[in-house]
């Protein structure tokens, strides 16, 4: 995975360079914007960079010779590598924007073991002795930061595609990028809709509706879309794109299911979020939907009453966890994850993709579904 490590470092470098340019631009407007850019730089540091990796390996899988081990040995791929790195970096900036907005909607206090963006702005308000509502200032500033990052992701993506000789490939990548943005926004709305309107729908719809949220809020935008964007930028054939989508969608579902498990059972010292945070937020996940079908009616009613209570204590969180384990919902989700990883692996086993890139994608399949944070 040395090449993936190299890409992660390059993506961070390009993001830092881009934000440094914009920091100078903002400083020329007003010195107070230094607080704004400090939060921006901090929030864009680190992360697993999975979306950048899938974009890059989607590109490599269609631009390298199928039987070649070292795709970077080819001068043709080296020539366009800077553009692909910038496009991959744009996906990470877009992801950061989504996280900023998501944390506001979920009222999350932390992200990656540090205060979420809106909480950082809230602290700026309190520490500065400002007048008015610190929480409102934090939310408003966080919304603006998310919007700014959305715009910056467009700039980075366009800068990357402008470096490609194949204009048609650049346009195809831009189309995929636009589709991704629409789908993830739709998925975000479906997520908050389920948190608030779940009781108004028939019980039999709970599981398929939870699965729909996974597909559009996360699975497509976390794995399938980055792969399709990278492939499009590489001038992929329809057969190659189809194979990558068949790999990316089930893997994306497995990825989000693992994330949902960590949201309930993850170690806070590793995940960087409080234990049981998804339970306090009232996330109507596949795990929750399955548990409700398996729990006896009295326990199901208790869980329904507790889910979404921001004041859930440790004892209540542990009670819900135990109920989910004892009823078999946790084992069921683990089987679904394993099944989807199997579907993903089978989809590219004999696909017309570069051998070395396919090996990297299979390694990534394990990484994103076996993680602990």
TrEMBL record:
Family the UniProt entry places it in: Belongs to the FPP/GGPP synthase family.
GO biological process, one term: isoprenoid biosynthetic process
Domain of life, source organism: Bacteria
Classification via InterPro entries: Isoprenoid_synthase_dom_sf, Polyprenyl_synt, Polyprenyl_synt_CS
UniProt keyword list: Magnesium, Metal-binding, Transferase
Keyword Magnesium: yes
Protein name: Geranylgeranyl diphosphate synthase, type I
Matching Pfam families: polyprenyl_synt
GO MF assignments: metal ion binding; prenyltransferase activity
Cofactor: Mg(2+)
